[in-house]
Amino acid sequence: MAEAKKRVGRPSGDTQNRAKLVLAARNLFIERDYAQVTIREIAICAGTDPGLIRYYFGSKESLFSTMIRETAMPVVKQLHQSKLNIKAESPASLMQTYYTVMAKHPHFPRLMFRIAGLDQSLPENEEVTKAFYEVVNFDNIAMFKRLKDKGMLKEDIDDRCAQLSFFAMMLFPFLVPDNLLKCVGIELTPDFLQTLAKQNANLLRRGLLREQDHTDEQ
Q: Measured between alpha carbons, how far is 14 from 102 in angstroms, rounded to an integer?
């Protein structure tokens, strides 16, 4: 009996169903608030049976958390590496990884930005903010404090201001309305974002970071 119950809703030969559900969830949650998106809508958008959401994820809440975590995972790994071994090039490496990931999901930062502004004390926001903080660990993000402590920032640089400037570089390109981007002739293609990453890396290096003293290596 238990085995029969386990097979209910099991996909038959289509190994792409799970990926389709994550993609559909990401698209819908970007467009609308969490509470407005239903399991049925996600399944219809994915072209699958609603029962597969329970099979793969257990609930809408778990699907949302999985979508957030899997989309952001390459960036989270880069953040963790920077925390373990901070280097002068860490911010630029993180930005390049972030732009590479977000080139595939250019509206995902808008979702994360919206979640960050939610009132965490409200019960209806509990699951959403929980998923957000599973991937956004501010201790990992605060890399400019660690750079300052290691003497890698210029003496006149405030690490808090540097951190905020870095956030602006990371988020702003993806928060600009599409119509405004079109007006200035910008399309957030992978090639453009890599060019932007290189230029921003130069801005960070020349504006914030102390020139490396090669005599320290001897």
A: 27
